[in-house]
Amino acid sequence: MTKEKKQNLIERPPIIVVLGHIDHGKTTLLDSIRKTNVAGGESGGITQHIGAYEITHPSAGSGQAKKMTFIDTPGHEAFSKMRSRGAKVADIAILIVAANEGLKPQTKEAIKHIQESGIDMVVAINKIDLPDASPQKVKQQLAEEGILLEGWGGTVSNQEISAKSGKGIPELLDLIALTAEMKELKADPLLPGEGVIIEAKTDTRIGNIVTLLIKNGTAKTGDFIVAGKAVGKIKKMENDLGKTIKEASFSSPAQIIGFDSLPAVGDEFYITKDKKEAENLANLKKETEALGVKVASKDLTGKKVINVLLKADFAGTKEALEKMIEELVFENVAANITKSDIGEITENDIKFARSTSSIIAGFKVGASGQIKKLAEQNEVKIITAQIIYELIENIKKELASLLTPEIVKNVIGKLQILATFKQDRTKMIVGGKIIDGKAKRRAKIDVMRKGELLMSGSLVQLQHNKEDVAEVATGRECGIAFQPKDSTDKRIEVGDILEIYEEEEKNKTL
Predict the structure, then answer these.
(1) Whether the Cβ atoms of residue 496 and residue 448 lie closer than 8 Å to each other
(2) Contact call for residues 227 and 265 (beta carbons, < 8 A)
């Protein structure tokens, strides 16, 4: 993996997966989104299925067309397989639930997959046009599963839709765009392409046909590529409309021809500088499998895992450290030894660590300057120590870094509404007086009415004396543009209190 450069980073479109019970409208939703967002004249091109497709959708805030990529996975099994291989396939998951049936076992399974993947969730309550639809029942059932929606004491965005008629789908896409905006997804188009294999099949006439989902960089016709043990040269590339293209960048899906054998779904792929590098990486994968990467006997289901390649000075200390590292199992994270050996850290260790996504933990062993440079180039982390306690503590710090930070709400001010102006489902222009603290542009807002939460959103524009400002202090009047988290029929009224706050991430400890 080549390191991205900060100055080259640009906005990356979000990758979205739709999960839920088989009969709750996943396919209908995907078809509806695709058909209504394909540019005129191109609809005839929707003849093939390549596992993913791109759309453009005008952002509710800016009105700018935003790209999005939807993965059309065959089901939870494929998604789970990708995730189990260490590939974080999507950025956002839509959990689809039918309003007339509510949560099913497969819905709960989908919730588990989303939570274990650590990606953001947006709930789509479908089939609201049916006579027996009960969105409130769905919200109650989700609350019982620990999924607290906005308006139900939580922060999970949600939208009521009819995938069949298209009702609510533009608003659902607005939520996706807003969620992606908050994530600030970035990537470097100048890097060699890398990503995940999402489909692979063999055609007796054409050969191996593989669908790539590019997560970073750019892939071009003529590039050499490796995925797992399979290598190839991209001979032909098509986009999701079946059109031949010369190159594709993040977060695009692309179907290619050129692999010498079929890679596995969920394998990560890399564009390499030449055929030799691709073959070396594939051979390393074969050697790794032949050696047999150690799999922990303990149950790591549902935990985030750090793989550790252990190097020690003597066999006795190696065995002692193995036991101590294998005991690093906590509620949400765990350490897993992929390989352990005696002696200095070598080039082969770097290659093995890269192929198994391991960190290298060295006890009373060193790494030359050349090896350290190679590790940096391959984004392999090396931690060393002369005291066993220090090495274990350093591994525990790595585990703690996997924990999802706690989001702390810091209230910075309160504003009382004195006047309302233009208001619609996605933006509200109001005026008021700061009665405590300050107002700050880009802060978050909870709209309170008689002490109860009405809705939440963001302060997207702030004016004082008709001039745009960054902050307004206590006692002053100001005008603000408020953007709710999701489109709503609710309206701000005179007398409402706007609680203005910022969110702070606090790292959790083991």
Answers:
(1) yes
(2) no
State pLDDT tens for residues 129-177: 999 999 999 999 999 998 999 988 888 999 999 999 999 999 999 999 9
Per the structure block, which two tokens stand in for 189?
């188009």
The answer on 348 and 312 residing in a single domain is: yes
> Does 146 lie in the same domain as 31?
yes
166 CB-side CA count, 13 A = 8
Q: Which residue has the tokens 């702390």?
A: 408
Q: 3-class DSSP state for residue 507?
A: coil
Q: Which residues contact 369 (CB under 8 A, 6 or more apart)?
A: none
Helix or strand run (H / E) with residue 176? helix 169-183
Instruction: Looking at 51-155, list the stretches that DSSP marks H as alpha helix, in order from N- to C-terminal side.
Output: 76-84, 105-117, 135-144
- DSSP conformation letters of 443-495: -EEEEEETTEEEEEEEEEEEEETTEE-SEEETT-EEEEEEEESS--S----TT
What is the C-alpha to C-alpha distance for residues 139 and 127, in angstroms, rounded to an integer?
A: 14
Q: Do 36 and 101 sit in the same domain of this protein?
A: yes
Supply the pLDDT for residue 342: 84
Report whether the peptide linkage leading into residue 117 is cis, meaning its omega lies within 30 degrees of zero: no
Domain that holds residue 19: 6-185
- Flag whether 418 is in a domain: yes
Residue 500 β-bridge partners: 413, 445
For residue 48, what pLDDT is reported? 47
14-40 per-position pLDDT tens digit: 999 888 887 888 888 988 888 766 533
- DSSP SS3 for 355: helix
Residue 61 backbone zone (phi > 0: left; psi -120 to 50: alpha; other: beta): alpha
Q: How many domains does the chain have?
A: 4
pLDDT, tens digit, 9 for 90 and up, residues 169-216: 999 999 999 999 888 899 999 999 999 888 888 887 888 999 899 999
Q: What is the CATH number of the domain that holds 347?
A: 3.40.50.10050
Helix (H, G, I), strand (E, B) or coil at 100: coil
Cα dist from 45 to 41, 48, 99, 196, 209, whole Å: 8, 8, 33, 24, 19
Q: What is the pLDDT of residue 372?
A: 94
Axis-axis angle for helices 369-377, 347-355 (nearest 10):
20
Whether this prediction's pTM lies above 0.70 is answered by no
Give the residue among 397, 482, 486 at the shortest CA–CA distance from 439.
Answer: 482
CA-to-CA distance for 499 and 480, rounded, in angstroms?
13
List the one residue out of 442, 439, 431 whose CA is nearest residue 478: 431
pLDDT in tens, 29-73: 988 888 766 533 333 333 345 678 888 887 655 556 788 999 875
Give the three-state DSSP class for 348: helix
